[in-house]
Amino acid sequence: MGTQPLPLDGITVVAVEQAVSAPFATRQLADLGARVIKVERPDGGDFARGYDTAAHGLASHFVWCNRGKESIAVDLKDPRGVRIVRDLIAGADVFVQNLAQGAAARLGLDAAALCAGDPRLIAVDVSGYGPGGPYAHKRAYDMLVQCEAGLVSVTGTDERPVKAGVPAADIAAAMYAFSGVLAALLRRGTTGVGGPVEISMLDSLAEWMGHPLHHGMHGGEPPARTGVAHAVIAPYDAYGTADGAQVLLSVQNDREWRRLAERILKRPELADDPRFATNTARTAHRELTDAEVARAIGGLGAEEAIGELEAAGIACARLNTVREVAGHPQLAARDRWRDVDSPAGPLRALLPPITLPGGPEARMGAVPALGEHTDALLSSLGMTDEESAALRRAGVVA
Questions:
Q1: Per-residue pLDDT tens for 91-112?
Q2: Cα 167 from chain centre
Q3: CA–CA separation, 167 vs 159, rounded Å?
Q4: Rounded to the nearest 10 degrees, what angle do helices 21-31 and 168-191 cross at?
Q5: pTM for the predicted model, two decimal places
Q6: Got the DSSP string for 174-194?
Q7: What is d(CA 80, CA 76) in angstroms, rounded to the nearest whole number?
Q8: Residues acting as catalytic residues
Q9: How far apart are CA 202 and CA 127, in angstroms?
Q10: What is the dihedral of CA 106, 111, 114, 116, to 10 degrees?
């Protein structure tokens, strides 16, 4: 462990957040040392707490997105609850919210209003479609935005489009919110002014659509849906092995195709065959290309196929299941797993991807119970035990 602090030590974040997009963004901040105060509803809290019970009785989404935070349960429909949140924000560096469009403004908690009152504050509004335009008030859940952004149209097979298997729109917005906060902190460090940050799920995922979007806009036709295969590179697909596994391989240039033909396919003549000699030709004759590769890989076991492909300098991978990822030898060898405390006991979790060699390890704090820190936070605002108890009896806090 190094002697340097985590990068965000001393930074306080208040978040009125729910679901994935804002919570995943603030979890990144917590991992890097920020104190994150999560404001939840008294009647059940963040609705992601109820998505499932897969993580030892806790919701898998919630466990993933909310470690290392302090939970305060406050009724924002009550002016006393709003005052508590505003008092918390007064002592914070960053405020993040992803309430339904217009809800934060009605409470006076929108980024523009908050930053006008405190120029040093960084306030982040995360929304589905942005504050203006005809979609501003449209409900925006992850799969809906995947559809609106065109991701579903390019994912799947020729017969059927499918959604991404992870909440891609939520994750995209979360990561831009995270990086937006870091950029605003840098700006504040040089100018003294924080300011509002605006993130929309549609903007974020549309940016991630870069290749198919530019291909379609400038090339005339969007890439076809090709399942695991790459739309414009061949061979680049998963192929069945003799022991029932799937191995994906990728040939990125014609030199690699020559090596594949000679050493794996045992068909050196295919290197110069006009149907296969260039990527354009292989893509045009994808069925023939895939048939040749499938024949060769299908005669090998998965480990044998991986070994021969790597020896030939061909990029390859096993098509792993989720359970296989949990036991991945590379993650184990690099000691990437930690136990995180939770109301259900220790839960296994991955270290965050940002590694700072020579510094302290990411702060992977406990997953909070609903309202676990309410009393402590109210006390930090100067409330007496009697005042806190009165608010609790009135249902303003929990």
A1: 999 999 999 999 999 999 999 9
A2: 7
A3: 23
A4: 50
A5: 0.94
A6: HHHHHHHHHHHHHHHHHHS--
A7: 8
A8: 170
A9: 9
A10: -120
